Amino acid sequence: MQKKSLLFLFVTLMLWACKPVQYPAITESPTEDYRYHEFVWHELGTANMTRASQFYSDLFGWEISEVSRADRDYRIITNNGKPIGGIIRIANGQKNQWVGVLSVEDATAKMNDATTNGANALVGTTSIPGRGTMAIMKDGQGAVYGIMHSQSGDPPRSRNENEWLWMELWSDNVDESVQHYQHTFGYEITEREDDGKPYWVMTTDDVPAMGVTKNPAENMTTQWIPYIKVSDPAAMAGRVRALGGDVILQPRDDIRNGTVAVVTDQDGAIFCLQKWDQ
C-alpha cells in the first residue's frame, strides 16, 4: 500500500512540469542563499486535501490555499505569511506521509550520487515551474526524501513556533542509513546517547542537520519523521486527539524530559511535537 501511494504522489510531482501553472517559490522573496544538505521544505501526501487542510490549520494556525484553479491537486502551506510546505493529493485509501526535501546545488548530480550509494530515483530530475529542479529518492532502507535546487534560494534557518524544528530518521539498519547519507551528502557524523540509547547526529558546515535513531515503531518501516516546534506538547497532543488525530506517545519524563509527543493526523501521517527552548 505504501509503495502505491508514494508512486501516485510522485506521478503528481512529475505532472507539475506539464501544467500551465507557476508554483510558489519556497521563500517569501529571493534570498540567493542556500543551505545545502539541510531539509528546507516538506510535502504532505494526502487523499483528503480538505480534511488535512482543516486539521493542520486548526492545529497550528497554518494558512493553506490552492495554488491555482488549473491545479487543484496541490496546496501551499504558510505560517504567518511565510511558505513552509505543501500538500499533494494522493489516491483514496493510500497511506498519508510527510516527505522532507533537502537543498542541493545540483539535483541531477546529487541524484546520481544517491543512486551510486544505494538509493533509487523514484522520480528523476524534474523542473517545477516557479520553484526549481527536484528529484525524489528512496534510500536502501526504504525511506523517501526529496532533493531540490530552488531557483529563488532557500529560506533562512528559523526556530519559530509551529514550524519545522528537526528531521529524524527512524531506521531499521542504522549503519546502512548513516553510510548512505554520509557518502551521498558528506555529513559529519557524531554518535551520542539520547535517553540512554545511541543516537547519531548528521552535521553540515558545523550545523546539525538531522538525526538518526533505531526505529522504535514495530509496524513501520524506515522513515523520515518531521518535528514541529510547539510551546506545550502535552496540550497540543490533546488538541490532535480532539481534531480526530491519534497520539502514539504522550510526553513522558523519561523521554527527552517530557518535551516530545508523537502523533498522527486523521489519516495516519506521523509527526512529532517538541518544546525547544534553545
Written overview of the protein:
With 278 residues, this protein is of the alpha+beta class. The protein has 2 domains: 2-150, 2,3-Dihydroxybiphenyl 1,2-Dioxygenase, domain 1 (Roll), CATH 3.10.180.10; 164-274, 2,3-Dihydroxybiphenyl 1,2-Dioxygenase, domain 1, CATH 3.10.180. Helix content is 21%, strand content 41%. The protein contains 5 helices and 16 strands. The strands form 2 sheets. The protein has an 8-stranded mixed β-sheet, sandwiched between helices. The protein has an 8-stranded mixed β-sheet with strand order 10-11-12-9-13-16-15-14, with helices on one face. A hairpin with a 3-residue loop joins β6 (120-128) and β7. α3 (107-116) runs antiparallel to α4. The longest helix is centred in the N-terminal third of the chain and has 15 residues, at 2-16. It is globular. 39% of the residues are buried. Mean pLDDT is 91; it is low at 1-5.
List the helices and strands and how they pair.
Layout: H1 2-16, E1 39-46, H2 49-60, E2 63-68, E3 71-79, E4 82-89, E5 97-103, H3 107-116, E6 120-128, E7 132-138, E8 144-150, E9 164-171, H4 174-185, E10 188-194, E11 197-204, E12 207-214, E13 223-229, H5 233-242, E14 246-249, E15 260-264, E16 270-274
Helix pairs in contact: 3-4
* Main sheet record: 8 strands, mixed
What's the mean pLDDT score? 91
The helical percent reads 10-25%
Q: Low-confidence stretches at least 5 residues in length (pLDDT < 50)?
A: 1-5
